[in-house]
Prior knowledge:
Layout: E1 3-6, E2 9-10, E3 13-14, H1 16-32, E4 36-41, E5 56-60, H2 70-84, E6 88-91, H3 95-108, E7 111-116, E8 122-123, E9 126-132, E10 137-143, E11 148-152, E12 167-171, E13 201-205, H4 216-225, E14 228-231, H5 233-237, E15 258-262, H6 268-274, E16 279-284, H7 291-294, E17 297-300, H8 303-321
Parallel strand pairs: 1-4, 1-6, 4-5, 5-12, 6-11, 7-11, 13-14, 13-15, 15-16, 16-17
Antiparallel strand pairs: 2-3, 8-9, 9-10
Amino acid sequence: MSVLVYTESEKGKFKKNALEVASYASAVAKMMGTTVTAVAFNSTDNELLGDYGVSKVLNVKDESLATFNAGAFAASITQAVKSTDAKVVILSSSTDTKYLAPLLAAKLSAGYAPNVVQAPESTSPFMVKRTAFSNKGFAHTQIDTDIKIIGVSNNAFGAHESKTEITIEEISATSDENKNNTKSVEIDKVVGKATIADADIVVSAGRGLKGPENWGMIEELADILGAATACSKPVSDLGWRPHGEHVGQTGKPVASNLYIAIGISGAIQHLAGVSASKTKVVINNDPEAPFFKAADYGIVGDAFEVVPQLIEKLKVFKAQNG
Length: 322
């Protein structure tokens, strides 16, 4: 009876959240006195999971599943749960897994707790702490079903090495009658830059930038920091930036280690979507901007003066510190 973890990958390589959920699963397995089995799809670096406490990888080989398909993935993971007699299933909190988790819960008659931020408080009864009310509070949730599904919040638990002997088994995808009901017709991704979902640092800007022609300094700051770029909803609605960069409750949620908001007033929907970030820095020329109440650090000033100075200071710092 192992703990089962679904490890996301892209083009054969594991995403950052795969290592985080593997680490979380390892912690749960130690509490339960068992081992961790991972399910991966078309992964090529399965040995890496052994560094994070995974004892066995079931790698589903099927080129038709090169892109995410919730129904097909759920069918294969369900079969893996049954074959390993797993009682706990660990997922990330990515957009894909939030689509996948309810399907798994229905197939397995399992209780599902999303947005979990730390290892279980106890395993008998099974109790977890998770965020609630758009990250404004915490809920201590007890799961009483035989099989339990845990969705771990991004950047909440972290990736922790725990080297383990690992075996790898390649398996075929489980047939799913709904596999062809949906298909990806186009994937619009940022190429060559950090993505919002995986980035430790996100640099975001709003209408205070006055126009798309001024985004150069935002991209330069992000480049220096190794950060992803993002924007507020009005900016994407105006067509200044792609909709894929819109963050907030109605866009992509952000749980980065550092979130820098430039020229964003801080509407409640935006704050709700970024509140899980560990440290929030706000640059705005309006001292009454709502975002300052949620910020860890705030700078009242003109972004067109503050950001270039910040860029120059960071360049000097990097030059001096290699």
